[in-house]
């Protein structure tokens, strides 16, 4: 599947379905069986127990399954065991930005290391000019040994960090927070 393709049917939008803890994969499978598009982005991690080490694929957004549907016909999804409600305001589900879902899909399909990340509202916005995520925008976060771009789902106030190469980045002139120092900040990073 080409992750850069978003269907043009205006009545179908992406929504975040809140599900019971640890039921994301089961609910996603049932959503798919009912004929709806679903998306549960996973990341790989390792867990150490006293007697073994195991590789796990865990949801990047625990407690959520992304569903693409016409909100008028959401009842079949809500009747799935483990499905709680759609994220939104009151009883009205709020659609997610297609660009945010596309960015998450591209990050997952890139093969780069991804992991859940703290939601960031402020910080330096960057655009990836090259590499497998070229054209994507995010927020730059650096640790001593790694550089990451953080991509967010605004409605859920959740984010995902994707490990990237520093040389792939360029600053986005608009969207610099009031807390960020101008160009000097780039020189210090």
Short description:
The protein has 4 helices and 14 strands. It has 189 residues and is of the alpha+beta class. It has 2 domains: 13-96, NusG, N-terminal domain (Alpha-Beta Plaits, 2-Layer Sandwich), CATH 3.30.70.940; 103-188, SH3 type barrels (Roll).
What descriptive keywords fit this protein?
189 residues, alpha+beta, 2 domains, six-stranded antiparallel sheet, four-stranded antiparallel sheet, disordered C terminus
Specify the helix fraction band.
Answer: 10-25%
Give the rounded overall mean pLDDT.
83
Oligomer: single chain
Low-confidence stretches: 1-7, 175-189
The CATH class of the largest domain is identified as: Mainly Beta
Query: What is the SS-derived class?
Result: alpha+beta
- The total beta strand count reads 14
Strand order of the largest sheet: 9-13-12-11-10-14
Total domain modules? 2
Q: End-to-end distance, in Å?
A: 36 Å
> Which shape, going by the Cα principal axes?
globular
Q: Within the CATH hierarchy, at the fold level, what is the topology of the largest domain?
A: SH3 type barrels
- Main sheet characteristics: 6 strands, antiparallel
Helical stretch count? 4
Sheet-strand content, in percent, reads 35-45%
Radius of gyration: 18 Å
Give a description of the structure.
This protein is of the alpha+beta class. It has 2 domains: about 15-95, Alpha-Beta Plaits, CATH 3.30.70.940; about 105-189, SH3 type barrels (Roll). The protein has 4 helices and 14 strands. The protein has helices at about 25-35, 75-80, 100-110, 185-189; strands at about 15-20, 35-40, 40-50, 55-60, 65-70, 85, 90, 90-95, 115, 125-130, 135-145, 145-155, 160-165, 170. The strands form 4 sheets. It has a 6-stranded antiparallel sheet with strand order 9-13-12-11-10-14. It starts with 12 loop residues before the first strand and ends with a helix. Residues about 1-5 and about 175-189 have low confidence and may be disordered.
């Amino acid at each position: 599947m080409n992750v850069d393709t978003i269907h043009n049917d205006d009545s179908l939008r992406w929504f975040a379905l809140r599900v019971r803890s640890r039921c994301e994969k089961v609910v996603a499978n049932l959503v798919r069986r009912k004929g709806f598009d679903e998306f549960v982005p996973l990341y790989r991690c390792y867990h150490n127990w006293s007697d073994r080490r195991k590789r796990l694929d865990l949801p990047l957004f625990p407690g959520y399954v992304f569903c693409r549907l016409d909100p008028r016909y959401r009842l079949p999804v809500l009747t799935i065991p483990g499905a709680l409600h759609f994220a939104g305001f009151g009883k009205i589900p709020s659609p997610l930005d297609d660009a945010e879902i596309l960015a998450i899909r591209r990050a997952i399909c890139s093969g780069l290391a991804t992991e859940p990340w703290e939601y960031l509202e402020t910080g330096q916005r960057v655009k990836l000019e090259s590499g497998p995520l070229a054209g994507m925008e995010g927020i730059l976060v650096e640790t001593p040994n790694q550089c990451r771009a953080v991509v967010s789902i605004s409605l859920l106030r959740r984010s995902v960090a994707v490990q990237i190469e520093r040389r792939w980045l360029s600053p986005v002139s608009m969207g610099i927070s009031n807390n960020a120092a101008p160009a000097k900040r780039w020189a210090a990073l």
